Amino acid sequence: MPAVGIVIGDGNREYPGKLTLYVTMTCIVAAMGGLIFGYDIGISGGVTTMDSFQKEFFPSVYEKQKNDQESSKYCKFDSIPLTLFTSSLYLAALCSCVVASYVTREFGRKLSMLLGGVLFCAGALLNGFATAVWMLIVGRLLLGFGIGFTNQSVPLYLSEMAPYKYRGALNIGFQLSITIGILVASVLNFFFSKIPGGWGWRLSLGGAVVPALIITVGSLILPDTPNSMIERGRFKQAETKLRKIRGVDDVEDEMNDLIAASEASKLVEHPWRNLLQRKYRPHLTMAILIPSFQQLTGINVIMFYAPVLFQTIGFANDAALMSAVVTGLVNVGATVVSIYGVDKWGRRFLFLEGGLQMLISQVAVAAAIGAKFGVDGNPGVLPKWYAIVVVLFICIYVAAFAWSWGPLGWLVPSEIFPLEIRSAAQSVTVSMNMIFTFIIAQVFLMMLCHMKFGLFIFFAFFVALMSVFIYVFLPETRGVPIEEMNQVWRSHWYWSRFVEGDENGRVEMGKVH
Ligand code: BGC
């Protein structure tokens, strides 16, 4: 992914420009891409707990759940086709990343968004009208291909459109729209599950068509980014567009920087080989570990399977879906906290505070479930206060994730890569995220069945590990201009040995003037 739009000058000068109504509206429409992603994350868990859906597509799970009161509750949803339904989407997203990155670079961000939207619509329709498991899975694959395109192009589009001063907040704005999508999906699941006749799941799955249409139509009316125009040699057009976006006439400095950045990135012939050079070891390490760790927090266990999990611990169907709505609300609220705090308190503080809070709540959830369910998974009658305590700790956990690893898992990689490796490193980040999302989605129900409440300890262990990693290895990046970023590695006790730089602490290609 060419990320020339993230280049922000030499750190000493400011580009004139305002947060115009035009750019705000444009970004809101583009952020709809995040909404679709979130809708998908949130919809599958609720749908898979609906009786009518299970009866139609996964009858063995339904039978097991209804008739088999004897066996362990930890295992009642353990079914490979059921998990494949959820996880197939991430595999597809992973595969389409490569094509999407090419289309985004060669044909512009708009076309990539359009393709994403169209694939999405197709997937949503196939799912909504599904009469066989294969239609469900193919539909999920189409949705996944769509996500590959929109997740590649939308964040890039936002970064390129946003005035640089608002870039951090806008970056997390994409995450915010993901969380809103998750919330909307949980609320809809709650209501659609009540529709008499049990066909509400069709509306839940088919409902993805609405945000998909918004991004499809949006991509047709959205303007192209100046960066994208420059990359394709349309300089005059780009300048006019930049004036309109920024709401000022004096855009010369920014224009020159964009042209220089575009030229510099064209000079790089082997971004992948570059990435393997010794001086990029800290960047490569972060590109691999940050997204992997983000998924190893276990967040998607809650996002995908909250209703399943709540049913497992004995909630009625309704209460389980309602609890998913509550965690969804917490997720949105805490993301707003992150937007507010990320440039004030810094990334390290949020990472470490969030890590500690997640650790404590995971141990508490494990203890609460372990105490009642033991290892045989048969708790008897559960008191109401018990359920409330479990949901409370899950909310504390979700809040911690939503102001730390959630947004920062995307923000930090995007701001530490120097221009010459940004494209390749960003693809590594996206792919690692999708691979780990797939693995967690695929093995969670099996892990719950075998590791029982110990599953929460498993994730707690990783949260402890990643917090130590952040403490020891991640330098603070708050308030550091992107081209000056090499300095933070040069003054780091460990990474300094890998990184060279000139006397200003910049990497050669990062200087675009
Ligand atoms: C993660 C998703 C997760 C979502 C939850 C994102 O940052 O990448 O996997 O489901 O946050 O809000």
UniProtKB/TrEMBL annotation:
It is a multi-pass membrane protein. GO terms for cellular component: membrane. The keyword Transport applies. It holds the Pfam family Sugar_tr. Keywords: Membrane, Sugar transport, Symport, Transmembrane, Transmembrane helix, Transport. It is found in: Membrane. Residues 26-478 form the Major facilitator superfamily (MFS) profile domain. GO terms for molecular function: monosaccharide transmembrane transporter activity; symporter activity. InterPro entries: MFS_dom, MFS_STP/MST-like_plant, MFS_sugar_transport-like, MFS_trans_sf, STP/PLT_plant, Sugar/inositol_transpt, Sugar_transporter_CS. The chain crosses the membrane at residues 19-39, 80-102, 114-135, 141-158, 170-193, 199-222, 284-308, 320-342, 349-373, 385-412, 424-447, 453-474. Belongs to the major facilitator superfamily. Sugar transporter (TC 2.A.1.1) family. NCBIfam families: SP. This is Major facilitator superfamily (MFS) profile domain-containing protein.
